[in-house]
From TrEMBL:
Gene3D superfamilies named in the record: High mobility group box domain
Residues covered by region (Disordered): 1-32, 45-114
Name of the protein described by the UniProt record: HMG box domain-containing protein
Composition bias, Basic and acidic residues: 16-29, 67-78, 105-114
Residue stretches making up the HMG box domain: 28-70
Bias type Low complexity, positions: 1-15
InterPro entries xrefs: HMG_box_dom, HMG_box_dom_sf
CDD domains named among the record's database cross-references: HMG-box_SF
Organism of derivation: Dendrothele bispora (strain CBS 962.96)
Amino acid sequence: MAKATSSKTIKAATKTAKEKPAKVDKEPRAPTPWMLFCQKNRAAWKQANPDAKGNEWMKALAGQWKDSPENPNRGKEPKSKKKSRTTLDVVAKDAASSSPPASSPRDEFASSDF
């Protein structure tokens, strides 16, 4: 006959199952050259352009970053981005490549023949 389990053992087992394992302490990543460049130049740009909106400062910093001596990829051509197919491109291509639909057999006969 099986031994009856008490509510204490069930609670203890549930509690240990719910406990999270101890996290391993990781060292934070070193900041990238881009992050350091942004930290250094963002405040100065915002002071010079206090009325600028949202992402305007990012666009300006990206333009400065392209030719910055801090940029490890300076002088290289930017990587090309894959062109995404928009819905209009797909529809236009499909419409141009498809042939007209085949006529159905009903179209060949007069309605009185059926």
